[in-house]
């Protein structure tokens, strides 16, 4: 029975990876913007390099500093998307972040939506973390962490944050990996104020890898993260008045957002999301009952997921071993079936 389950699960996994391969040819249906059209350098100016007619951005971290850029406008809801390639080799302590925030404007009650990529020692895989803050709720982190079913240092993969007044969805290529639906009980914890888009690389030696056990080793620097196919679809907001720059702008952006198809959660997408989470999610605040004895209001406890986790929100040993074996079989099967070399 166990073998049958693994074989069926592997078929589902392969179907997901085929969807990812297909997504390379199916770019998200939005206009990509050059750096000068929509972004500004934020810090570490000397470590920001543009190429490809300003459609390709390299962010470097070295001994002198990290680097980052910010969108020129703030947005009230929208789609924020980029194809990203991460640094390779020894990357412990390094964090690459792609996120929305308004912390520069609302210092005490900011909102934030995060993709954070956490580096590792040589031979160990990168992990990705998603997080949500609303109204300065930094004491109530809503982290989830995942392994990746591919090597994010070898190729570009698209990461997208979809934010509407009703739902938040995180995508990798065409596959949703997390959905948060707004509930009345969330109140101000649901991000609702205009935000800017940020992309950064920085030294997080104090926490990023094994709780700070492994630090950034600058003999491997510069650490280079690459961004391209940058897309912004949303209602631009005046940063002073916090009002839309024009009603037409919001109408057009809402139409463009719907045209991407990413705001619709189909049955197929939900199935793909569940399979991804079963095989690659390693932590969820929703299942961390030690940290949150009373579950966070937006958490929908999925019993099939709940049984994978210990009371601290981390994987049970049995499921961690099964997940690791599943990932290993997954790579072996995909390599054999598709002739592609994917290394975790």
UniProtKB/TrEMBL annotation:
Ranges where the GH16 domain occurs: 1-227
Q: Which family does it belong to?
A: Belongs to the glycosyl hydrolase 16 family.
Q: EC annotation?
A: 2.4.1.207
GO molecular function annotations of the record = hydrolase activity, hydrolyzing O-glycosyl compounds; xyloglucan:xyloglucosyl transferase activity
Q: Does the keyword Transferase apply?
A: yes
Superkingdom as given in the UniProt entry: Eukaryota
Its primary localisation, in coarse terms, equals secreted
Protein name (database record): Xyloglucan endotransglucosylase/hydrolase
Question: Could you state what the record's PTM comment says about this protein?
Answer: Contains at least one intrachain disulfide bond essential for its enzymatic activity.
Q: What is the lineage of its organism?
A: Eukaryota, Viridiplantae, Streptophyta, Embryophyta, Tracheophyta
Organism from which the protein derives:
Rhynchospora pubera
Q: Return the SUPFAM superfamilies for the record.
A: Concanavalin A-like lectins/glucanases
GO cellular component terms, alphabetically, are: apoplast
